[in-house]
Write a structure and sequence with these properties.
By secondary structure, the chain is mainly α. Helix content is about 60%, strand content about 0%. The protein folds into 2 domains: about 5-55, no CATH class; about 65-120, no CATH class.
Length: about 120
């Protein structure tokens, strides 16, 4: 059994993962080691969990963990969000994160944050 925590394994895994997350890249058959394949499968699984199956087409807007975190923060602050350009699968994912933020929404926190932002010249619509 190979050491999964070795730097070489980790590097191949991360390379495979990043390629798996990118729907425009195909699997590189030249790289056939376990780390790369495992990373690719994990990355592709994460992509399809957030954006739907690639076989159903690549959406106009691609969701990443960062995008989902932004929707969570929007829910925390009670800000509205626009769903233009997202597929129904993506909207379902966004709604879960946004709803999670809404459940933790504290109006006093939002008011304080908006005051701090205004003091620094940042206006939120």
């Amino acid at each position: 059994m190979k050491k999964i925590f070795s730097p070489a394994y980790r590097q191949d895994y991360v390379e495979g993962y990043s390629i798996g997350l990118n729907p425009f890249q195909q699997f590189n058959t030249a790289k056939k080691n376990d780390a790369f394949i495992s990373g690719f499968n994990s990355g592709r699984s994460d992509y399809e969990r957030m954006n739907g199956y690639i076989s159903e087409g690549i959406p106009q807007r691609i969701i990443t963990d960062k995008v989902l975190e932004d929707f969570l923060i929007a829910g925390l602050l009670g800000l509205p969000f626009e769903a233009d350009g997202y597929t129904s699968h993506q909207i379902n994912m966004i709604e879960k994160w946004y709803q999670s933020g809404i459940e933790k929404y504290d109006p006093n926190l939002s008011i304080s944050l908006f005051e701090i932002l205004e003091e620094n010249g940042i206006l939120i619509n």
